[in-house]
Design brief:
The protein is mostly helical. The chain has four helices and no strands. The protein has one domain.
Length: 109
């Protein structure tokens, strides 16, 4: 669950940053669309909420928010480093991490 939560949070940061014109230009080729950006930002916030709910269900209300906050910070650090070092490959990296998180959750559970 920890890796899946990290993957969901990383994808949420990806969607939130791609909802901004500057980061979109860094990571993607093509024209920036404001309507699509609003959808991406909304999905990013929804994924952060889903990660919070997942950690609260997994560890309870005592430790779930603590794990969520730690994963939120680590995924933000990982995303900002990947966006800085590999801007063109960062969105693909986020999807790959999410797929590995889902595979890990399916194989372990």
């Amino acid at each position: 669950m920890l890796w899946l939560g990290f993957a969901v949070s990383l994808l949420a940061w990806c969607l939130l940053s791609l909802g901004m014109e500057k980061h979109y230009a860094q990571a993607c080729a093509g024209r920036y669309d404001a309507r699509r950006a609003r959808v991406w930002r909304g999905l990013g916030w929804a994924l952060h909420a889903a990660a919070f709910a997942g950690f609260a269900a997994w560890k309870g209300w005592e430790f779930g928010p603590i794990f969520w906050a730690a994963v939120l910070m680590l995924s933000a650090l990982a995303w900002s480093l990947s966006l800085t070092l590999w801007p063109k490959a960062s969105a693909k990296l986020a999807v790959a991490v999410l797929l590995s998180g889902v595979a890990t959750a399916l194989l372990s559970g």
